[in-house]
Design a protein that fits this description.
Elements: H1 6-18, H2 22-28, H3 30-42, E1 49-53, H4 59-64, E2 68-73, H5 76-85, E3 90-93, E4 107-111, H6 120-127, E5 136-142, H7 147-155, H8 170-179, E6 182-190, H9 200-207, E7 220-227, E8 242-249, H10 256-262, E9 269-276, H11 283-294, E10 299-304, H12 309-320, E11 325-328, H13 340-348, E12 354-358, H14 371-388, E13 400-403, H15 404-412, H16 425-434, E14 439-443, H17 458-477
Parallel strand pairs: 1-2, 1-4, 2-3, 4-5, 8-9, 8-11, 9-10, 12-14
Antiparallel strand pairs: 5-7, 6-7, 11-13, 12-13
Helix pairs in contact: 2-3, 14-17, 15-16
């Protein structure tokens, strides 16, 4: 541990002196720390390895109950108390500006410690030693709006005093993360009622604090980031990922062969899987004919649904897929198959982890989307951007792409939401949000249907979507 700086030495001695009182301060403000633990727990998948930088005596790390938990702190006395109180966790005396850990973690937490760092950019640079692009780094900090009241609380000895070494704000965090090659996944605020009071604290902190305007008053700000890949593949270099394209098809006989003619070859291998869903126009027979005709030229398969709905078709297709990257292409050809190459580039480069099509950027073809559908899409765009904490302009576009490894994690986590989605879109959106995947949207041109009729009912399905939004609020937002 480097202690060349007099300011660091002074900070270490200050933290050492306050170490015996650390847990007493925490329990005096237990409502805040319980809410903080709730926020972080919601963002950490079961079985994760967690590193906390600036762990103090290990209270928060212990509350998170990680499969493997490691804490580091500048204060030897804090670390000693952490080892004594929480023997199942691992603690090290270490300077965040000179990390000497040799392992990578699923999650790295820096909770309310950014103010203690002398060189924040160096801290962000050191984080790369313990992160992969799949690691999620979570920062929490106090809103500057609350600084006068927090300073008063310190003077009245209602909270532990801070020895600030910088005046970093949220914009500074974004800027330094960008400079050091990190990408913001989501940001937010919470916790507006810093008191223990039955019913009221839950009402304010779990529900009202998430509403627009009130949310801007939150004490706790948080930023989640990920490390961008250091070497995204360049144009013309060999592609290292295989691709599976799932095509749910119900009453789409006239589109099947056209799909095969237009799908681009992507990555090291491209697999096409048609999933037929109880058609009455001969779609299944056409799929089988096309599969026979293109065997040898393409790796193409035909499956038949056991259940009903697009969601069931997508899950059946994904279960049979062998590719590293999983794609959905609707058989109505409203999204051009040629555009799938853009989705591949976005995910193969690591710039996004869940790639969603957006039909609401380019002008629409006449009759491609009715006025009520357009209004519904814009409404759900606003609702889902608020729900997920990430921008999502078009929730209902059927073209969605994610990595197989992330889909497998999503399956393991599916019990959190349950089998609730007949469309398949929201199972993937909510699941990806729970896994904190980086969502990226690709603008596509939305074409009018050339064959058949839509399988979507605007009113009955619209009502179902509203119920799903209400369901998701309690699972994603009001936690």
């Amino acid at each position: 541990m480097s202690m060349d700086s007099p300011r660091k030495t002074e900070l270490m001695h200050y933290m050492d002196a306050d170490a015996p009182n650390r847990d007493r301060w925490i329990h005096r403000n237990i409502a805040y720390y319980r809410d903080l633990a709730k926020l972080l727990s919601h963002s950490i998948a079961p079985g994760s390895s967690v590193l906390e930088i600036g762990c103090g005596t290990g209270f928060l790390l212990n509350e998170l109950n990680p499969m493997r938990g490691v804490g580091i702190d500048l204060s030897p006395r804090m670390v000693a108390l952490g080892r004594e109180k929480h023997p199942r966790l691992e603690f090290h005396v270490m300077d965040a500006e000179t990390l000497t850990l040799s392992e990578k973690f699923d999650v790295v937490i820096l909770s309310d410690v950014l103010a203690y760092f002398e060189d924040i950019q160096q801290v962000f640079r050191e984080l790369k030693k313990v992160c992969t692009p799949a690691t999620r780094i979570i920062f929490t900090y106090h809103s500057f709006l609350w600084n006068p009241l927090l300073a008063l609380a310190e003077r009245l000895r209602l909270k532990m005093a801070q020895r600030r070494m910088n005046w970093l704000n949220e914009s500074d965090i974004r800027n330094l993360l960008y400079v050091e090659g990190f990408d913001i996944v989501k940001t937010g605020r919470r916790f507006v009622f810093p008191f223990r009071f039955p019913v009221l604290d839950t009402l304010f902190n779990a529900y009202l604090s998430q509403l627009p305007l009130i949310n801007s008053l939150g004490i706790t700000g948080y930023t989640m980031a990920r490390l961008l890949p250091a070497d995204p593949p360049q144009e013309g270099t060999p592609q290292r990922y295989s691709v599976s394209i799932i095509v749910p098809a119900r009453n789409e006989k006239g589109n099947i062969e056209n799909i095969m003619k237009r799908i681009p070859r992507m990555g090291s291998h491209t697999e096409v899987i048609f999933v037929e869903g109880n058609s009455t126009d001969g779609t299944l027979e056409e799929i089988r004919r096309v599969c026979c005709a293109y065997t040898g030229e393409w790796d193409v398969k035909a499956l038949v649904q056991d259940g009903k709905g697009k969601g069931d078709a997508v899950r059946k297709g994904f279960a049979a897929a062998t590719g590293d990257i999983l794609m959905i292409l609707d058989a109505d050809l409203s999204v051009a198959p040629e555009d799938l190459s853009k989705f591949y580039e976005a995910i193969a480069s690591g710039r996004g982890e869940f790639i969603n099509g957006s039909r609401l950027v380019y002008p629409l073809e006449e009759e491609a989307m009715r006025t009520l559908n357009m209004i519904g899409n814009k409404f759900f765009s606003i609702m889902f951007s608020w729900l997920l904490g990430q921008r999502l302009k078009d929730t209902l576009c059927g073209t969605k792409v994610l990595a197989r490894r992330d889909y497998e994690r999503l399956i393991r986590n599916r019990r959190y939401f349950g089998e609730f989605d007949p469309f398949g879109d929201f199972d993937l959106i909510f699941g990806s949000a729970k896994l904190n995947l980086k969502i990226v949207e690709i603008p596509i041109r939305y074409h009018a249907r050339a064959y058949g009729e839509t399988n979507i009912s605007r009113f009955s399905h619209g009502w179902l979507l509203l119920k799903m939004v209400a369901f998701a609020m309690n699972k994603i937002k009001f936690v």
